[in-house]
Specification:
It contains four helices and eight strands. The protein has 203 residues and is α/β, with parallel strands linked by helices. It has one domain: Rossmann fold. The strands form two sheets. Strands 3-2-4-5-6 form a five-stranded parallel beta sheet, with helices on both faces. It has a three-stranded antiparallel beta sheet with strand order 1-8-7.
Length: 203
Amino acid sequence: MASAHPASVPPAPEGLDPHGDTREGRTVLDARDISRALTRISHEILERNKGLEDLVLLGIPTRGVHLAQRIADRIAKVEGAHVPLGTLDITMYRDDLRKHPARGPHHTQMPPGGVDGKVVVLVDDVLFSGRTVRAALDAMNDLGRPATVRLAVLVDRGHRELPIRADHVGKNLPSARTERVMVRLEESDGYDEVRIAPTGDLA
């Protein structure tokens, strides 16, 4: 798990990503920016919910799970208690499954007490077309009936295809459809960064 102190997060290698690929495009969020955005989102969630009562965080794999854990850690520091945390696999609910049949499933882990009657905050890294969130809502409907569902994302890049809006956003990032937004997190990639580049420039 990443440290809450941004100074301890290793910086991205100059000119290369951890796999040795040339890093094109531009950085829109560095490690400190990401840390500040998650701290702000954590406080917004608490203010909106007026505390921890009935609050549940569900991370959407893969990077949404890491972000949900970081938000849960920040909330615990403020409230002195842990917020129930789970993961929600959406693989079999995606509407592009026929185009990508080799997509491997992830693990769904419901928090203690489930989601019935809870205020569920879905957490993901990037909000784009809205189809991932739609799949998450379908998946959750098979697991329970929350009182309220909210959405927290690190980046909202626009270009929605469905009427879905995030309640908590780390950064609104205007982008072209021909651009690719890449989120790197220490837990999965070795460093924290968000970059944007023309399609094909980033591995």
